[in-house]
Amino acid sequence: MNDSTKFTRLPASDDDRAEPDRATREAVLDFWETRFGVPPETFDGHTFWERGKGKLWCYRGEPPSPVDVEALGMTFLRTRQEHWKPTLEAVQRFGEHATECVIHLSESEAEAFVAGYDQELDWDGDWGYLVVTHDLAGRREPVGVGLYVYGELRSQVPKGRRRDLDT
Questions:
Q1: How many domains does the chain divide into?
Q2: Across-strand partners of 75?
Q3: Which of 69, 94, 119 is the last residue of a domain?
Q4: Which residues pair with 57 in a beta bridge?
Q5: Cα 1 to the chain's mean position, in Å?
């Protein structure tokens, strides 16, 4: 049973889980591969943990389970909602491996995105959560998570992380 006061390691597969609604490592890897084209081996050496309902964390290494700490690695994924949502931290760390559902923004579009503004943009891919990238120092870099619906890219940059770069 998942305890909201402790981190518990995700079960490896459906056969290993006691709660039918709980995510598994297998499902997490499948989500990242299916939605974003991130190969499962990208997460070799990482373990996945849940604290609370559907709040997943990613940790490089193998601490004991369960773990009674306030934080473990990085927040990674929200799973107990209609659509799984990757976190800003996860996309900034692993989004460089994404080959699907990636939208690349111009400088002005990226500035508006990190400031938290929604934008009407053309996108010919799937609706839903996207890896948002922009060119930084000559490379395509992931800057965050966007939600694309009805011709609009909605910034998912948390309020405390938004920045006005138009100076």
A1: 2
A2: 57
A3: 94
A4: 49, 75
A5: 24
